[in-house]
Each structure stands twice: as C-alpha cells, then as structure tokens.
Write a structure and sequence with these properties.
The protein is mainly alpha-helical. Helix content is 51%, strand content 9%. Strand 2 and strand 3 form a beta hairpin. The longest helix has 38 residues.
C-alpha cells in the first residue's frame, strides 16, 4: 500500500513532523535526546520551516532547544546552585537582581536576549535612574553569573553580558580621579588637629591606625586586642567586620568575614605611631570604664569602641571625618591654627591610599607593598604604584618649575 503524502489546505506537501492545525496555523513536533516530545507553532508554513532550521542547527551544535527559559528562570536556578558567597554578599546580590534587573529583563527569553539589550539596560540605569557606575558594576557581576547558567546548561553559546559594561564604565570614569591621597602637609594638619583638639581626641587612635597601617576600614574596625602583638610589633589581619542590610526583618547588622584570598590574611608591622595610639586608646577606655559589649559571630574584645562599648561601622567613621574636616578648616581660616593648607574632602579609603602613597615616596619594594596591603593580584598594587608615582612626578615637576622660575627671576634682577 502506497503511503499518501500529507498536505496542507494549499495543497503543499508537509514534511515529517509538520502538521496543519484546525485553525489554519502550523505545528512542528520532534523528540529531544531524552525522547521527550516537543512542539513549536507558527502562523505560516514558511515561518514554521525557518523555526525548524534553527532547531536543527542548535540541536546539531549541542544547544538545549526544548524549553523557553526566561532570565528570571535562570536567576531562580542560580539562587539554588550558588555556593561560596558570604551571607551578606549573597543577600546583596539577590537585592540587586530583584530590585534592578527582574522588572526590566526578567521575562525575556534567554535565546532572545542580545548584548545590545544589556547595554541598553545599563544605559537606562545610568541615564534615567541615575544609578552610580559602581552600583551598575555590582549589578553586572550578579547578572553575568545568572546568564552564565544559560551557557553552562547549553541554552546559548556565549554570555551576552560579556564586556557589556565596558563602554559605559569608560565613558563615565574617563578623566575622573579616584581617591586622592593626602599630601604630607595635609596629613600633618589632620594628625595634629586630632591630637590637640579635645573634642576629637577620641578619634585619634582609629584614624592614626588607618593612616599608618593601610588596613581596609573593616579590617581596622574588626581588630581585637589579641590581634596585636606588642612584643614583636606586629598586627595579625585575619578577618573583616562588615555592616550590611540582611534584607529581612533583622534589618542591618554586623557580621565577620574571613579573607577571600590567602593574601587577605596577613601580618603587618606595628609602627611606633600606631603602637602609641593603641596604648592611648586602651588607657582612655580604662579611664572611662568602657568595656566591649559587642559579640559578633563568636568574636569580641574589639579595640575600637564607642562610649557604649559597641563597635563602629564605616558610615559612623565617615560622618566623624566630615565633622573633623569642617572644624579643622574653620580653625585654619579663623587663624586659630597656623597652616599653609586646609583639608580636602576625603573618606576612610583615602587614608589607605595615603599610606600607600607614603610607601611609594619612601621607595618601598612593590612586593612588600603587595603583602602589606593584602592584594591578591600584583597588578592592583602596580596600578596604585603607577598612579602614586605619577602624582609624585607631577609634584616634583611643579617644584622644579617654581625653582626654575625663581632662578630666572633672580638672574633678571642681577642684570637690571
């Protein structure tokens, strides 16, 4: 018996797997590698066959073409699979995705998502929602990980977010300077003001520790007395104090993070200036009967405490810096302090940058700098070194220009 070829209502022969539905549209059915039946639909036979070609091509290339997966679907899978993140980092990533990404890209089918869509999304965040580039960078970090799930599960070949942020970062940060280090005169003014102003004397130990160790803010606020070896003059850096929003009913809270890399866990020199400041802090707490009340993830006996015996967080220190800068500059302008300079606006991180610059000026070996600063990648140290060296050269050229001008002026006076 001869098999009768199937045709549509326009008398066109239908291939294996092709069907015309009662409403006139078309369907293509096929089995995947797991022998599961799948279907796609189209209004016309021409459109259906274009879809068939793509399915066959993707199947031959090993892509998973059996299911329409959205970006939100991938995010849910990423949440289930993701391991190795600190709790506060994981919570922050979830917040960034759910607050910024889901409403814009969440319903997009991953096979339809293009690099241009992601670039447009980042531009929208920067231009219409006025989100900082640093925040968009964090959004990019989590979105890239979510989309990588699609690559790993063979829904797509390449991650469409690869290099999607590069142009925006370049356009927004071009010509901008990062954290500026304090000059020697500015540092001297800052230190002297803290040491000799009764209102701010209590802040002297914590800011001197930042200025003369180069530790990150969380490393300083997380220091305990047992991390200090007064005999061998060393500081053991083995954890960080973090203050973060849990995105739950608990609100904001402290947690202890251990270093992400081996380089983060290190021993740094306890310089005489810092040793003196820590002894002052211990004496102050004894006189005021301040006792550490903070217990965080099993850690206690913290060095830097407020009058209630609780640890500081970065926001508190930055607010203190603003008041110190304001009052110090008023004192200079009112003539109460004799100084050639006033203090610029700066943050906690500027103190770490200042310490790095002083090391460069002193000719410190780059490998030693890397170890003291806790950089896992030498390129990070090299970038900071290059920037600090550039600033140093600019200052030297300015000084050279001034000296040359003075010499020429003196020469002119001689011949007049």
């Amino acid at each position: 018996m001869i098999n009768k070829k199937r045709k549509d209502n326009k008398n066109r022969i239908l291939k294996d797997g092709e069907y015309q539905r009662p409403n006139g549209s078309y369907e293509y059915r096929w089995r995947d590698k797991r022998r599961k039946m799948n279907s796609i639909y189209a209004k016309s036979l021409v459109e259906l066959r274009e879809k068939e070609k793509q399915i066959i091509k993707d199947s031959l290339n090993g892509l998973n073409v059996t299911k329409k997966v959205s970006v939100d679907d991938l995010y849910k899978k990423w949440k289930l699979l993701k391991r190795g993140l600190k709790d506060n980092t994981f919570k922050n990533y979830q917040y960034l995705y759910e607050y910024f990404v889901s409403g814009q890209l969440g319903n997009v089918i991953i096979t339809n998502l293009k690099k241009s869509d992601i670039r447009s999304f980042y531009n929208y965040l920067a231009e219409e929602r006025h989100v900082k580039v640093s925040t968009i960078d964090s959004i990019h970090t989590v979105l890239h990980q979510v989309l990588q799930v699609a690559v790993d599960d063979e829904y797509i070949f390449n991650n469409p977010s690869d290099n999607a942020l590069k142009e925006l970062k370049q356009s927004r940060t071009s010509g901008k300077k990062g954290h500026r280090a304090l000059t020697l005169k500015e540092q001297q003014l800052f230190e002297n003001f803290l040491e000799n102003t009764s209102r701010y004397k209590g802040w002297y130990p914590v800011f001197i520790t930042m200025l003369w160790t180069g530790l990150r803010v969380g490393e300083v606020t997380g220091l305990r007395w047992e991390d200090i070896d007064f005999e061998s003059n060393t500081i053991s850096v083995n954890h960080t104090l973090v203050y973060y929003d849990t995105r739950t009913n608990r609100g904001v809270t402290f947690t202890i993070n251990t270093p992400k890399t081996k380089a983060g866990e290190r021993t740094v020199p306890l310089l005489p200036r810092v040793k003196e400041a820590l002894i002052l802090e211990k004496k102050r707490q004894e006189e005021l009967e301040i006792v550490c009340k903070s217990k965080i993830d099993g850690y206690t006996n913290f060095i830097f405490l407020n009058r209630f015996g609780n640890v500081f967080h970065q926001g508190t220190l930055n607010k203190a810096l603003k008041r110190i800068i304001r009052d110090c500059n008023f004192a200079v302008l009112d003539g109460k302090i004799q100084s050639e300079v006033t203090l610029p606006n700066f943050s906690n991180h500027s103190l770490r940058h200042t310490f790095t610059t002083r090391m460069v000026e002193a000719g410190t070996n780059m490998k030693a700098m890397q170890e003291i600063l806790g950089h896992s990648d030498i390129s990070t140290t090299m970038n900071i070194y290059a920037e600090a060296t550039k600033e140093l050269k600019e200052k030297e050229m300015e000084k050279f220009g001034e000296n040359l001008q003075n010499s020429l002026s003196n020469l002119e006076e001689t011949y007049q």
